[in-house]
Amino acid sequence: MGIIKCIGILTSGGDAPGMNAAIRAVTRAAIYNGLRVKGIYRGYKGLVTNEIVEFKSQNVSNIIQLGGTILKTARCKEFTTPEGRKLAYENMKAQEIDALVVIGGDGSLTGARIFAQEFDVPCIGLPGTIDNDLFGTDTTIGYDTALNTILDAVDKIRDTATSHERLFFVEVMGRDAGFLALNGAIAAGAEAAIIPEFSTEVDQLEEFIKNGFRKSKNSSIVLVAESELTGGAMHYAERVKNEYPGYDVRVTILGHLQRGGSPTAHDRILASRLGCAAVDAIMEDQRNVMIGVENNEIVYVPFSKAIKNDKPINRDLVNVLRELSI
Ligand code: F6P
Asked: Which atom of ligand 1 is nearest to the CA of 174?
């Protein structure tokens, strides 16, 4: 596509705290390096419908602390069709955008990968999702904030769980990944986590009961990852009611509150680093990679690897939870 003078930036899929910090970083780093920036509204939808605005440094003032995304976000059906992507490409050309930075999760990066292949457009992905399920980066933008939100909620649930001597199943997000549930459980001092990664290995409820609920505790909190693979918190509550009727069980589904709020320092710093690195990557003529941070170093991860949906759960963490919840 020749020399790059103008970068388009969009956020797509589920919003995640820290997306604004990433938009700010890409915009400012691009301008600092003499490039123009255009903000594309509502994800790929804005590329298809030409909702595109030139961004100056002031467009991203006072947003680093805001949750959500000032560019709005959407899951776009048109972009999944060749006709929709052709329209998107034509708008991109008409707007003189030479490269795209896409901030989002696996669905968004899959879209970028297809678009880049079809039209030979340089696309750089930034991992933006609370789920932390992208391979090639230690954490994703938004994950740490969501984890802290879960922590805050579970700390509060514990007060009532202890007072009433109840067993609580708390359902957290993560789609088919258990990072929020497992690390949320460790951080909150919960008794167990039920995660999709182990759904075929053991009956996680049986293991929890066997490991001594009621031997030493009158109340308990179990974090359950939402997922068809686990069946969700309601499923486990029903099972306990049927199989262990002596237990007083309650369910809390945390839902979309996990996606909101002001990003933590970790997410703001991560987003800022990744945003600057995205502009560096474009200037180095990198294309079709996600930028990640591994062992505190910036890494370029081919889209095909990042979105393979096989980021492993660290088994040590499972043992930590098991040992500390006696
Ligand atoms: O991918 C982020 C996420 O919040 C998942 O954890 C969750 O399963 C999904 O998005 C919810 O999507 P929606 O906001 O479209 O209901």
From this structure: 6
Burial 237-276 (b: 16+ CB within 10 A, else e): bebbeeeeeebebebbebeeebbebebbebbbebbbbbbb
Position in ligand 1 atom list of the atom nearest CA 13 = 1
The pLDDT, as a whole number, for residue 215 is 63
Question: Which residue range is the domain that position 232 belongs to?
Answer: 144-259
For the question of whether the overall pTM of this predicted structure is more than 0.85, the answer is yes
**Residues identified as active-site:** 131
Number of Cα atoms under 13 Å in the Cβ half of residue 315: 1
Task: Determine the residue of 73, 131, 134, 223 to mutate for testing ligand 1's pocket, defined as the one with the most ligand atoms within 8 A of the Cβ atom.
Answer: 131
Q: Domain with 125 in it: what CATH number?
A: 3.40.50.450
Domain count, the chain: 2
Q: Is residue 247 part of a domain?
A: yes
129 CB under 6 A from ligand 1? yes
Q: Is residue 175 part of a domain?
A: yes
pLDDT 10s digits, 284-314 = 999 999 999 999 999 999 999 999 878 999 9
Please report whether residue 245 resides in a domain. Answer: yes
Q: Are residues 242 and 150 in the same domain?
A: yes
Residues of the chain with pLDDT under 70: 1-2, 212-216
